[in-house]
Amino acid sequence: MDNKENISSGAKRNLIGFDVLKIIASSFIVLHHYQQVFNLQFDGINFYGGVFNFGYFVELFFIISGYLTLYSDKLGGAFHSIKYKLLRFFPITTIACFFTLIVKSVLADDIFALWNWKALIANFLLLFSGYPYFSMIGINNPTWYLCVLIQCFMVYYLIREISNRLHIPRIWLDCVVVGCVIALKYISILPDSTYRALESFSIGLIICGLEKQKLIKKSRYTSLVLLILLAFSAMSSLIISSQQRRILTFVSFPALIILCIFSQFDIIEKYKSTITVCGKVSFEVYIWHYPLMATEQMISRISGIEVERCFMTMFLFLLVIWILAYLLYRFVETPINTLIKRKQD
Questions:
Q1: Number of domains in the chain
Q2: How far, in Å, CA of 227 to CA of 249, rounded?
Q3: Which terminus of the chain is more solvent-facing, meaning fewer CB atoms within 10 Å of its CB: N or C?
Q4: b/e map 321-332, b = 16+ CB within 10 Å
């Protein structure tokens, strides 16, 4: 049976809200990394090194991925399901990795650090984060997200199998996973990236599980409570900066996700197709923003021209990466995925 039919019609209608969140989150992460890579500090708001850590929006990506994984799950074989997911993003990440490798080879002082078997295997097979033996800074480092997302998929299908065999509601098993992940982190067994991924991904699964069982119900009071909770937790995360990631992961982002499920989005309904495409393009933005930064560094070094970077150049870069990402999505990723789907059929 297709699990989709157990999800409320409200959730089905409002996945556009997730696209909006992905657009915003990917843009914030680009700005965060731009300041980090080019070592920039501004007066006023800073996306890197400021009071709020915009890098934690990766947790929001994991929560959305967890929700959508359960939302779209069909009771097929785990191997086939994981293979399908990998084939969707491996081709474009491989192209991005190879491109970045060439660019960084021009910039590198030590070519061997890039061109050795361990580094190449770790990066092209997405093993450089979450796997202790291969642990290293990635060639296209933001793709650490995908390294550990694969681990999340494997745990997801393992838990699904346990749930089916032992007839235990998977929502309880997902809660156990969150508890185990926190415990393993405290005794320093789990790599930090795996910990962040599994914790956030499982929270997304729990939210979707509650939605499936109609334990999350839309009402005026529920929405009001969620808005208050979101505002209070967001302010708390700024005040208690040492616990910022945890507050965002367990309170702010889940409240935001549930509000998206409840919201009607009538105002942006006429832009639905555009927002849906931009939601898909946000993946390209995430994958390609660091390669574009490395390219900018390479051009600057070769030409000897130093760009005076400021707030305006940062947002200009954001605009350029969105345009480039759309072109890559339209003329590279989509044809590749179409070809793969045709061969599978």
A1: 1
A2: 16
A3: C
A4: bbebbbebbeee
Q: How many CA atoms lie within 13 A of 150 on its CB side?
A: 19
Alpha-carbon distance of 282 to 116, in angstroms, equals 31
Asked if 188 and 142 count as a contact pair (C-beta separation under 8 A), the reply is: no
Give residue 264's pLDDT band: very low, low, confident or very high (50, 70, 90). low
Which domain, by its residues, includes 305?
3-344
Could you tell me the two tokens for 125? 């097979």
What ranges in 72-116 are assigned the alpha helix state H? 78-107
Q: Check residue 47 and report its DSSP letter.
A: S
Q: Which of 159-163, 211-215, 218-222 has the lowest mean pLDDT?
A: 218-222
- Taking alpha carbons only, the member of 54, 64, 68, 63 closest to residue 234 is 54
Ramachandran quadrant class, 217 (left: phi over 0; alpha: psi -120 to 50; beta: rest): beta
The DSSP letter of residue 268 is: T
Q: What's the token pair of residue 17?
A: 């809200």
Q: What pTM value is reported for the model?
A: 0.92
Cα(43)–Cα(183) distance, rounded to whole angstroms?
40
